[in-house]
């Protein structure tokens, strides 16, 4: 790609790459200057040009000296569009998942289903970039646009044909996952989270809907879970745009979920596809995991899978790291589960998943993240107090905030809960309290490997701590 291809200028200087951080610019790059949440990228244009940027994608009002000013009203969108062309080609089949909860699980399950059906598949999301051979962590659910496009192009070069990626609301809003064709897009559910960023539930929902309204290929397919309060609204929008629709759930027309029965090691689902009803035995517990498997199956169908093979594959799905993962059974016989529930709705879903398996008491250990939506703290406390027998409030990534203040906000809504700030101590105490017939749920950190305190990440793994405490 030459500068003239991009900016309708005479210059045929070759573009060497794209950067959105001036510290990463090398000679011949195009720099994207975006006003951000912390700083204004437009302030770094001079630095980017000094480092060798030959073009700058920026708002028309901005001053650019020493490089082509490629004007754009929405510089993030335009940057993604042209960088998307530069880094192509990409894997042949790309699908995306959005929703408040269940994105990571669904992309990972989609990857597994494709792999079991013989495709070379990958997933991109909170767990990083996952293939059959490897997992590379990226730090964020949706890293920046340049990393995203590089990852997609790299997967293509590795021979990967199918990729499922997680479309977070931040990522959609900031075009961090734009620039690649999206052949199918799924909606899992919608509930409170991230209002620190989006401010209102309406704005949060609109950010998610960008996936269906703008990002999904006009010839693509939307896969919508039917059992959420927002499902009908999503379906109406998809129909209004005129893209192909597949619905999945108890009201699903593509995959209908009938009766669901918990079994000792998982669950049995009655599911109907194309007029035929079959019993699917899933090796995973919890209603929410069934929902995610079925949405993943919808994505697999939307990308051309045959039902027979897909049905076989669903029965062999493996657990997703940190999602209702059984870490250990304590010396006194209580199973300890680790789950990534960090919203009120997720906490309710995780507790509901375990409830049928509890004979005695359900002991929930949880906290809420610092520098994240403070309004979810009370509702998380309420849910934990109402549905658990014992709730222990502890720390979960306080970041720059005072952890005692976060706990206080939760405890205000859960006055009966026990407060133990130190997460290791809290886990030990929960396991010490639990006897045979009880279940311990450690919620909020899932797969995470650290506790973020201030600017430091202290090594911490709920599964590991559970194992050392259970001995
Ligand atoms: C609030 C938010 O979403 N911030 C993200 C966003 O940053 P931003 O664009 O606002 O960046 P900024 O720091 O204000 O800087 C503005 C611009 O100046 C540039 N810059 C900055 C400094 C400099 O010296 N030179 C320079 O050029 C930056 O590269 C940027 O383009 O875009 C960056 C990548 O493009 C992200 O790293 C960053 O994530 C921060 C670290 C973060 O904590 N994000 C969380 C809230 C997040 O995004 N989470 C979601 C959702 C999780 C989920 O529900 O699954 C996720 O997708 O991970
Ligand atoms: N379909 C679902 N319905 C309700 N809750 C769910 C669902 N799927 C997952 N959860 C809950 O949300 C937690 C996180 O799941 P997962 O990591 O798949 O979601 P996510 O949308 O990727 O989350 P994040 O916003 O952190 O990226 C799970 O551990 C579980 O407690
Ligand atoms: N993607 C979510 C993860 C939250 C995980 C929880 N452990 C926390 O730190 O709040 C976020 O960035 O809000
Ligand atoms: Mg995720």
Automatic annotation (TrEMBL):
What are the BP-aspect GO terms?
cell division; cell wall organization; peptidoglycan biosynthetic process; regulation of cell shape
What are its E.C. numbers?
A: 6.3.2.13
Which InterPro entries does its entry note?
Mur-like_cat_sf (IPR036565), Mur_ligase_C (IPR004101), Mur_ligase_C_dom_sf (IPR036615), Mur_ligase_cen (IPR013221), MurE/MurF_N (IPR035911), UDP-N-AcMur-Glu-dNH2Pim_ligase (IPR005761)
Q: What positions are modified (N6-carboxylysine)?
A: 208
Q: Pathway involvement?
A: Cell wall biogenesis; peptidoglycan biosynthesis
Q: Which Gene Ontology terms cover its molecular function?
A: ATP binding; magnesium ion binding; UDP-N-acetylmuramoylalanyl-D-glutamate-2,6-diaminopimelate ligase activity
Q: Name one GO cellular component term.
A: cytoplasm
Per UniProt, the short sequence motif Meso-diaminopimelate recognition motif occupies residue numbers 396-399
Q: Where does it localize?
A: Cytoplasm
Q: Which UniProt keywords apply?
A: ATP-binding, Cell cycle, Cell division, Cell shape, Cell wall biogenesis/degradation, Cytoplasm, Ligase, Magnesium, Nucleotide-binding, Peptidoglycan synthesis
Q: Which residues does meso-2,6-diaminopimelate bind?
A: 372, 396-399, 444, 448
Q: Which residues form the Mur ligase C-terminal domain?
A: 322-446
**Which residues does the record give as UDP-N-acetyl-alpha-D-muramoyl-L-alanyl-D-glutamate binding sites?**
168, 174, 176
The cross-references to SUPFAM superfamilies, in alphabetical order and at most eight, read: MurD-like peptide ligases, catalytic domain (SSF53623), MurD-like peptide ligases, peptide-binding domain (SSF53244), MurE/MurF N-terminal domain (SSF63418)
Q: Kindly report the protein's main subcellular placement as a broad class.
A: cytoplasm
Mur ligase central domain: from which residue to which, for each copy? 97-300
- Output the PTM entry: Carboxylation is probably crucial for Mg(2+) binding and, consequently, for the gamma-phosphate positioning of ATP.
Q: Catalytic activity annotated for this protein?
A: UDP-N-acetyl-alpha-D-muramoyl-L-alanyl-D-glutamate + meso-2,6-diaminopimelate + ATP = UDP-N-acetyl-alpha-D-muramoyl-L-alanyl-gamma-D-glutamyl-meso-2,6-diaminopimelate + ADP + phosphate + H(+)
Cofactors needed by this protein, per the record, are: Mg(2+)
Functional note: Catalyzes the addition of meso-diaminopimelic acid to the nucleotide precursor UDP-N-acetylmuramoyl-L-alanyl-D-glutamate (UMAG) in the biosynthesis of bacterial cell-wall peptidoglycan.
Record's protein name: UDP-N-acetylmuramoyl-L-alanyl-D-glutamate--2,6-diaminopimelate ligase
